[in-house]
Design brief:
The complex is a heterodimer of chains A (401) and B (148). Chain A is of the alpha+beta class. Chain A is 37% helix and 17% strand. In chain A, the strands form 2 sheets. In chain A, strands 1-2-5-4-3-12 form a 6-stranded antiparallel β-barrel. A 6-stranded antiparallel beta barrel of chain A has the order 6-7-8-11-10-9. In chain A, helix 8 (316-325) crosses helix 13 and helix 9 runs parallel beside helix 13. Chain A is globular, with a radius of gyration of 25 Å. Chain B is mostly helical. Chain B has a single domain (2-145), classed as Arp2/3 complex 21 kDa subunit ARPC3, CATH 1.10.1760. Helices cover 76% and strands 0% of the residues of chain B. Chain B has helices at residues 2-13, 18-23, 27-38, 44-59, 65-79, 81-85, 89-113, 125-145. The chains are: A alpha+beta (401), B mainly alpha (148).
């Protein structure tokens, strides 16, 4: 580029390739780049180095706000620090009180599960990373953090703060990584309603204060205030971590699906520090499909065979019967996108109030563990052979035409 | 020229409050457009392509997306630079608006094809603000390169 900028070049009109030729060349080049980047990630390596090259500039852009924050912190008054200290101590007491029974509960849980020893926690280790204040794309919910592959980060790693789930790493450079937040419109996290055990998918809306649950039938048992936890499906997040709280449930008698909004528990609007977590793959609560190594990015575009409906091993008979009863709901041709994958089973369960009731009680029947994916769970529940008792408050009879 | 492109890049990744970030013009694109109109032989398409690649890396987009969009409008600007240069400021702004719209449309189309659709109408706002700050940007950049 500098060569073209040299003054001597300007004085010789007509030298060098014509603009049209150069345009064609660059257009072909960028199209080739896009193709290579999109397919198979052939440019992963190049991107790795490019993000390393971009990082100094990003840090430089970040430095004024960082310096300001540092100044603010170093000139904080004694009173403010003491107040903060007191608040932190209070919080620590509350947490300690809550975790005092943890050992006993872990022990009891191990006994109930028939294990000899209590399991280690599913979170194996974590590191804290700081958010680099750079505007990646104001319309997408992405942030840059100051840890990368040199710190052992990998693509598709869970990112959390002390209140709940934040998102996952999307692109990892040597010293930095790009995180896609829960609320990005392209992000979807498999969740479970903690009160009822109903599983669904929480999709980002692009607004940092709201998640949508677009795949629950209109008569599903959801109430404002319900806690959403990760369901462990999807291969990124382990089971049981808090994600969001339902804020708004809107039933429209014309729509087959309920319109539900939830607010993320993590403090997405004031991000300073985040935690990157490694999970034990052999833990029962570990993300299902962790061994498969599928990442959300490739699954969204190409589909992951590991996430296709599996035959439920423990209740093979009833699952097979259910599948025979509802073959249309399981057509694999619809599985092009991860988001769309849940839709058929949910639609099937929304067809009649009875099957929706059965879907709601999928956990009570005990097929939750056996069913390999939530899709299979929906199919099991939709089967006529499952006599599910209706959970309280679910599906007023005839609520749905 | 390279300096102004770098300044444009920094201005376009500077962290801003959300509402300001939405109306922020694409400074790097404006700088590239300015140079391809004012000195089409100096940077031209190579500057456009390189800046586009830099944007791809910083924005975390599909590699080549911004490069293609920016090369396209740079090509048009380089070809028509004499006509554009002779226009009054208001008409120049209109032309820049059109170029930014084409640029954003190419990004929009590639977003869709590559499976990262972003359909929010807010993404089009910067074409308007870009056209509005164009006279200002040209004044600043003109002062930067010559006492003429």
């Amino acid at each position: 580029m500098a060569a073209f900028a040299a003054g001597s070049y300007r004085s010789l009109p007509g030298r060098g390739p014509s603009p049209g030729f150069r345009f064609t060349l660059y257009a072909i080049l960028s199209t080739a780049f896009m193709f290579l980047d999109q397919r198979h990630g052939w440019l992963e390596q190049a991107r790795y180095y490019l993000s390393a090259a971009a990082y100094p500039l990003q840090l430089a852009v970040n430095s004024p706000p960082a310096a300001w924050r540092w100044l603010e912190q170093s000139f904080e008054t004694r009173a403010a620090l003491q107040a903060e200290n007191a608040a932190l101590r209070n919080r620590e007491h509350a947490l300690e009180l809550r975790s005092q029974r943890f050992e006993a509960l872990a022990r009891e849980n191990a006994e109930l599960r028939g294990l000899r020893d209590a399991l280690p926690p599913v979170a194996d280790r974590w590191i804290v990373a700081e958010v680099v204040n750079v505007d990646l794309n104001s319309l997408r919910q992405r942030v840059l953090i100051d840890r990368g592959a040199r710190n052992g980060l990998f693509k598709g790693q869970a990112v959390m703060d002390s209140y709940g789930l934040l998102g996952q790493t999307m692109r990892v450079g040597p010293w930095s990584a790009e995180v896609i937040l829960l609320t990005d419109p392209e992000h979807a996290v498999p969740v479970q309603i903690e009160r009822t055990g109903v599983r669904t998918i929480a999709v980002g809306t692009g607004d940092s204060q709201s998640l949508a649950l677009p795949y629950l039938p209109a008569n599903a048992d959801v109430m404002p205030g319900d806690l959403l936890v990760t369901s462990g499906l999807g291969g990124v997040f382990p089971q049981g971590y808090p994600v969001a709280r339902v804020t708004e449930v809107h039933h429209d008698s014309v729509q087959p699906l309920a319109q539900i909004r939830a607010q993320p528990l993590a403090q997405l609007d004031k991000l300073h520090e985040v935690m990157l977590v490694w999970f034990r793959a052999d833990h029962p609560a570990a993300p299902i499909g962790l061994a498969g190594g599928g990442t959300v990015d490739s699954d969204l575009t190409e589909g992951n065979p590991a996430f296709q409906p599996l035959p439920a091993p423990a209740r093979a008979g009833s699952a097979a019967a259910a599948r025979g009863a509802a073959p249309a709901a399981l057509k694999p041709s619809r599985s092009g996108k991860a988001k769309a994958k849940l839709a058929p089973s949910q639609a099937a369960s929304g067809k009649t109030a009875a099957s929706a009731r059965a879907a709601g009680s999928a956990k009570a029947v005990g097929s939750a563990k056996a069913a390999g994916s939530s899709k299979a769970a929906g199919a099991t529940a939709a089967g006529p052979s499952v006599p599910g008792p209706a959970p309280p408050g679910s599906a007023a009879p005839g609520a749905h035409p | 020229m390279v300096l102004s492109a770098l300044a444009g890049l920094i201005l376009s990744v500077l962290p801003l409050p959300e509402w300001l970030a939405v109306v922020r013009p694409a400074f790097l694109v404006l700088a590239v457009l300015y140079w391809s109109i004012a000195a089409p032989r100096a940077g031209g398409l190579t500057l456009g392509f390189a800046s586009g690649l830099a944007l791809d890396v910083f924005r975390g987009a599909v590699l080549g997306q911004h490069a293609l969009a920016l090369t396209t409008i740079t090509y048009v600007a380089v070809r028509e630079h004499q006509k554009i240069r002779s226009k009054p400021a208001f008409q120049q702004s209109l032309i820049v608006f059109g170029a930014l719209a084409v640029y954003e449309f190419i990004l929009f189309a590639i977003d869709g094809w590559s499976g990262h659709p972003l359909t929010s109408p807010l993404r089009w706002i910067h074409t308007v603000t870009g056209a509005l700050v164009w006279p200002l940007a040209t004044a600043v950049l003109e002062r930067s390169h010559s006492p003429r």
